[in-house]
Amino acid sequence: MALTRLTKELAVNKDLVASVHWDRLYTSTALVVTMQDGTAHRITHTGGYTGGDDCYEIERRLLDA
Q1: Is residue 36 within 8 Å of residue 18, measured between CB atoms?
Q2: pLDDT in tens, the chain (65 residues)
Q3: What class is the 3-63 domain?
Q4: Global pTM?
């Protein structure tokens, strides 16, 4: 069971991810990672270059086979 680090506070097992989708609002963009047990993790994109969470990089890490 290998965990993939998504943010400083969140690591998940990629084998247990059920879906990944974008939540694009007028004021913010977030990546929603839903696990097989129904737990949803909403990660707000804050731009990785400023030390925040880069949701585009997180999505690439999750979807890499």
Answers
A1: yes
A2: 789 999 999 999 999 999 999 999 888 899 999 999 999 999 999 876 677 889 999 999 998 85
A3: mainly beta
A4: 0.86
Six token digits for residue 29? 């963009």
| Residues 29 and 48 sit within 8 Å (Cβ to Cβ) | no
Residues 6+ apart with CB under 8 A from 51: none
Type of residue found at 34: T
Q: Please report the DSSP string for 1-65 in residue order.
A: --EEE-SSS-EEEGGGEEEEEEEE-SS-EEEEEEETTS-EEEEE---GGGTS--HHHHHHHHH--
